[in-house]
Structure prediction request, 590 residues.
Amino acid sequence: MSWKTLAVLLVLAAGLGGFLIVDNQWIAPKREKVASAKGRLWTVEAKDVDALTITRKDETIKLKRAGDGWEMTEPVKTRADGGVVNEVVTSLTTARVDREIDPNPSKLADFGLEPPAAQVTLEVKGQAAPLTLSVGGKNPTGVWVYAREGSKPAVFVVGESVARDTARPLVDFRDKTLLAFDRKNVSAVDLAVGDGSRMTLEPEEGGKWTIVRPGPYRADSDLVVDMLDKLGAARIREFESAPKSPAAYGLDKPSRVTLWLGKDKDRTSKTLLVGKVDPDKKGVYVQREGEKDVLVIPAEAWDKVPKTVAMARDKTVFPYAYDKANRVEIESAAGKVVLERDGLSWKITAPEAFKADSGAVNNVLWRIRDLRASGFLDESAAGIPRYLSKPDVTVRIWEEGAKEPKTLLLGLSGTVRAGEVTGVAAPAGTGPVVIVDAKDVRDLSKSATDLRDKSVVGSFDMKEVKGLRVSVGGKRLVLERKGDDDWRVLEPAKGAAKEFKVTGLLLALRGLRWKEIASADGADQARFGLDKPEMEIAVLKGDGGELAALAVGRADDKAAYVRSKSSPAIYAVDPKSLEDLRKAPTDIPG
Prediction:
């Protein structure tokens, strides 16, 4: 190929590439725009429409753009539902004429156009004259609707959606937002419920809320946030078209919810007047202060508003950092027990040193953390001598880095409510004194025995288990583990073993818990049938040594007596907890 031919090909390629770029960037979009506009009634874009008017037999709806949204100017001046208005405007600006029916009809009434069902007017940016459309009745198939543009005589048909959109009820075009606000911008909330409760709530650091009047008291922050979220999300269900007297809606003496937004000179407020609940409508009547409309909103939005100071208060009895607790003392009629954190577990250091049942200790700490007041008796520590001069339970909790503990006092009062004795609690030194469930007081009265680790055999690593030796009533079973899950029977006859049954036996052994200590030092074994055990189980390591061992002696319907390798003590256990262990010689082989 000569250099001249190559040069010509390069020029042609460059020209073709340039054409493709121009076509993709400019020509094709214009071509698509022309194609999309073909057959349309109007060649305007929805974004250029500044105002929409729909005139019907009994009403006129006027809407105009307001910033990024829309507002209604007739029949009432209010916010419009921007989503609905944009949908209708888009439907009208993209409407297509299917065909002309009559270029100069003698009777417009034949097409439902005298008078029309709706008269539509669009005011378009940059155009002096508005666009108008008369919408009539449907054609015989119901798929199309008759229409006329402006003063032009011709009648044509457009899609039925045009009739549907222009017939939408007034309420569709109204904004259903009850109160538009950003929760993060709320600087205070005033509540005035009926003729009684009055309170002011203010936000604090870390998402907390405080009742500043009356008070100050800690507020139930979750409740306040939930209330604001429900008010912010509430949608208006109905607009009362012909409001009666305020008394008919309970709005002659309304409750008031006022949200203060912003701070200092930028501070504004929005107030909601709340009337009575209508059970049939599952809603409540409200008014926005300064507006005449009576609205119906979902009853659950009002249900979330606290009606009394007591409802709005934080009912946490004893706030403390659960994850930072490293020492606990519990003093009650059951004695005094001292616990200290030991890594991820807990240990008892007094009255004697024992391993603690970490699950039981954590349950106590969770119970204290989740303790809630059902009423308030005194707001300060001054009421403690009156109600808790001799507490039934005293709990002290030390948090990491703290020299002094936080102390919780609990007791049973002489007051009876609903046939039950009530409980009383208070953080020592600060108060308040509150009412709690008597069961909480009783359940927090723990002894060292209650919180001890009651494992009989003790914990062992299942992965280290390489063999088992079981003897029940003279029947002997010896098992060997090959690999991770392959168990084999060695005695009484070699064969396969059911792996899931072996795992169940090991878990039952590891989970065995004692009810009572029958003999702390293991004395008098014959009395408990442990001089000649009825059942013995040994958990073996790879070298044949014992990881754990259990001997079972005498048993009756109430208790079975056992002893493990890890302790000399003889324990009483629930006889039902040994059933799977007894079945091992017959259940496991196979």
Observations:
- Residues 135 and 163 are 7 Å apart (CA to CA).
- The longest helix spans residues 3-37.
- The two ends are 86 Å apart (CA to CA).
- Confidence is low (pLDDT under 50) at residues 27-36.
